[in-house]
Design goal:
The protein folds into two domains: 63 residues, Orthogonal Bundle (Helicase, Ruva Protein, domain 3), CATH 1.10.8; 189 residues, Rossmann fold, CATH 3.40.50. Helices cover 38% and strands 19% of the residues. The chain contains twelve helices and nine strands. The protein has a seven-stranded mixed sheet, covered by helices on one side. The protein has a two-stranded antiparallel ribbon with strand order 1-2. Helix 2 runs antiparallel to helix 4 and helix 6 packs parallel to helix 7. The chain is elongated.
């Protein structure tokens, strides 16, 4: 793959061959790596197979294929991930946005149609994909993105600038520590993997930040604290929407304080209970 006269077709075929033993999506992986790093479009792979690829681009793609063979996620190799309607910058400082998390965004937007919201806090924001996606659909919305990680906030800031032209605020905070306002909605995708999950996570997940994954022994280390303090930061009739791990609902129910009520369980595309919606019932 290092020859100066490598054609696009040869590069694609060889990349697929190398990736096939390690990836069930080897053709898609090859397509993404070649089009992103080669600054090409998908149709070029079909219509311009004899196009000559410069040696330096070939070498760059070769290195990327090797990284993928070692298990590194495509999103970290390309530095990009599509989520909802936008392409987000991602690095190993943040979780890679998942398709099922888009359901959380959709649920907030659905509520907004019936009960217009004016303010939102997106905790554990990571790349900012949740808060930024919601803000892009509700231009008047006041949004704060918060995270304990300054590295994650740097990525969220970059995405905010690219997608929203810096129309939202970012706060470094350990959950509610540096939050002083109340909101109509709080969204949060907290660390919720159990100790067993962490010890047995697949190679691609091992590239993601442990701080954003590790929920302690039972996966509920931060979830209890989030629930206990939520009502203090919610406006009247405000809601908290939280992503959780598979099978965690029975363990979460005893953690719900008296001033918060679980009103909805949202299942993901695999019919797994993935998001919980809570309503503040404080006077």
């Amino acid at each position: 793959m290092s020859d100066s006269a490598t054609t696009l077709g040869d590069l694609f075929d060889r990349s697929c061959h190398l990736l096939k033993p390690v990836s069930e999506t080897h053709q898609l992986d090859a397509e993404i790596l070649i089009t992103e790093l080669g600054h090409l479009q998908k149709h070029h792979l079909i219509l311009e197979k004899n196009r000559i690829i410069p040696a330096e681009i070939t070498e760059q793609i070769t290195r990327a294929v090797k990284r993928r063979i070692n298990g590194e996620p495509i999103a970290y190799i390309t530095g990009k991930r599509w989520f909802y309607k936008h392409q987000f910058c991602v690095t190993p400082a943040v979780l890679i946005p998942r398709p099922e998390t888009e359901l959380l965004v959709e649920r907030v937007l659905k509520r907004h149609k019936k009960h217009p919201i004016e303010s939102l806090l997106d905790m554990c924001t990571g790349s900012g994909c949740i808060g930024i996606s919601i803000a892009s659909e509700i231009p008047s919305l006041s949004v704060i993105l918060s995270d304990i990680s300054t590295d994650a906030l740097a990525i969220a800031s970059q995405n905010s600038h690219t997608i929203l032209k810096d129309k939202i605020r970012l706060i470094q905070s350990d959950l509610y520590e540096n939050i002083s306002e109340k909101f109509d909605i709080i969204t949060v995708n907290p660390p919720y993997l159990t100790q067993n999950d962490m010890e047995n996570r697949e190679i691609p997940v091992q590239y993601e930040p442990e701080m954003a994954l590790d929920g302690g022994k039972n996966g509920l280390l931060l979830i209890g604290e989030i629930l206990q303090n939520a009502s203090r930061f919610l406006n009247k009739d405000g809601i908290l929407i939280m992503e959780i791990g598979a099978g965690q609902v029975p363990e979460i129910k005893p953690l719900i304080p008296s001033d918060l009520k679980m009103v909805e369980i949202i299942k993901d595309y695999a019919h797994i209970e993935r998001h919980l919606l809570f309503c503040s019932i404080s006077s």
